[in-house]
Amino acid sequence: MSDPMLSRSGRTDPGGKLTERLDVPLSEETAEAVIALAAMAGMSKSEYARSIIERAVYGDLAMLRRLARPLQPSQDRASAISPGRSSDQSSF
């Protein structure tokens, strides 16, 4: 019996759990190009499309920073954003 192929890459997204979906109609030519580019990058079609969207939204440098930082619990992330501020204080 051969090794099973896993449908997921095994990489955890730096943004946390991905719960939202985006359905985007594409031409057949564009869809085929996305599939080919994703394969060349060693990514699934979804991972590739997500990386392109996030790069457009956050910019290349921000994406590199986002991918480089380790995942932190939300409380640690809040204190990293606002040092000296407790998590129960409102920022408004």
Ordered list of secondary-structure elements with their pairings:
Blueprint: H1 28-41, H2 45-58, H3 60-68, H4 74-81
Offer a quick outline of the entry.
The protein is about 50% helix and about 0% strand. The chain has helices at about 30-40, 45-60, 60-70, 75-80. The protein is built from 4 helices and no strands.
SSE series: HHHH
The secondary structure category is mainly alpha
Shape, principal axes of CA atoms: globular
| Total DSSP E strands | 0
- Quick one: biggest sheet? none
Alpha carbon gyration radius? 18 Å
The DSSP helix count reads 4
Low-confidence sequence ranges? 85-92
> Mean of residue pLDDT?
75
Helix content: 40-55%
| Strand-residue proportion | under 5%
Q: What is the CA–CA distance across the termini?
A: 59 Å
Region (Disordered): 1-23, 69-92
Structural notes for this entry:
By secondary structure, this protein is an all-alpha fold. It has a domain at 28-69. Helices cover 49% and strands 0% of the residues. It has four helices and no strands. The chain has helices spanning 28-41, 45-58, 60-68, 74-81. α1 (28-41) crosses α2 and α2 packs across α3. The longest helix is centred in the middle third of the chain and has 14 residues, at 28-41. The protein is globular. It starts with 27 loop residues before the first helix and ends in an 11-residue tail after the last helix. Mean pLDDT is 75; it is low at 85-92.
